[in-house]
Amino acid sequence: MQGTVDGFSYGIVTPVAAFLMACLGGALGLRCTTRSLRHRDSFKAGWLALGATSIGTGIWTMHFIGMMGFSVRQAPIEYDLPITFASLGVAVLMVGIGIFIVGYRGATALTLVTGGTITGLGVATMHYLGMAGMRLQGRVEYDTLTVATSVVIAVVAATTALWAAVSVHGFLASLGASLVMGVAVSGMHYTAMSAVSVHLHGADPVKGAGDTATSLLPMLIGPAVFLILAAVVVMFDPLLVMGDPDWRGPAAARPPHRPGVPAPRHVPSYGEPANWTARPAGRGARRSVPRGGHRSQDW
Given a cut of 50, is residue 86 above it in pLDDT? Predict the structure, then answer.
């Protein structure tokens, strides 16, 4: 018996919510990657890890919010918890590999293609592994050509996202890039879902079929809380909110040095290199020459 598949049981609510979660994860990931690339310090690996986890969690949350609207009218759907959370781990791991490749090897064409391919395959693996955790009284079948198309979309979307992470630095530009990423990831999800058909075991409908929100909603609480906490961390980082500090500005912004007065001791601000030293105005300081004509020796 062929099952009646409905991908929009709650109308436009689940697609819009899924899109917003994909945008949130993408925006956090892009800003964290930008932070690690523009300000190289001891926390670089931490920012890259936070960015990878944000993107992976955002994509995973987007997938299962979208799956809340997926139903088979003749059969109830449940999810296997180990496989479902394994798909989250795969998403974070493979997105992390792609981001670390670009973060430490640079934004060359080879690294972007390599990292984008790994990340895209990770997104596709997450999707189909999450689908493998779906339990119903039937068999899920896929259209091969549509599945291949969804994988290509995932790879292109991931490569574009990595390129944006290393090329787009402004807040508004990053926001636009995250919206594009949300569209691409959501497009990949619903393209993959269009490949699904369900063949049911038995000819009689099962009572209570079609309600999947009850089983999925508790699983989404943890990842959603993580994304909110990651957003708080990003919002309170001054280098991401305010941009480059004043020490990157022109030398005229520094207080002028008066002859005969020792230069003030400079205390590096957050994000400023510790080896910055205050220098007197002009190209260089001349050594003083006493009246006897002999230069004093500098120690």
Answer: yes
Minimum mean pLDDT range among 11-15, 124-128, 166-170, 175-179: 166-170
Alpha carbon distance 91, 57 (integer Å)? 7
C-alpha separations of 174 from 113, 158, 178 in Å: 20, 15, 6
Cα–Cα separations (whole angstroms), residue 179 to 54, 164, 198: 15, 12, 32
Residue 297 pLDDT grade (very low, low, confident, very high; cuts 50, 70, 90): very low
- Among positive and negative, which fits the CA dihedral 16, 18, 21, 23? negative
Listed residue (131, 120, 121) closest to 184, CA to CA:
120
DSSP symbols for the chain: -B--EES-TTTTHHHHHHHHHHHHHHHHHHHHHHHHHHS-STTHHHHHHHHHHHHHHHHHHHHHHHHHT-EETTB--EE-HHHHHHHHHHHHHHHHHHHHHHHHH-S-HHHHHHHHHHHHHHHHHHHHHHHHTEE-SEEEEE-HHHHHHHHHHHHHHHHHHHHHHHH--SHHHHHHHHHHHHHHHHHHHHHHHTTEEEEESSSSPPTTTT--HHHHHHHHHHHHHHHHHHHHHHHT-HHHHS-S-GGGS-GGGSPPPPTTSPPPPPPP-TTS-TT-----SSS-PPPP--TTSPPPPP-
pTM (2 d.p.): 0.74
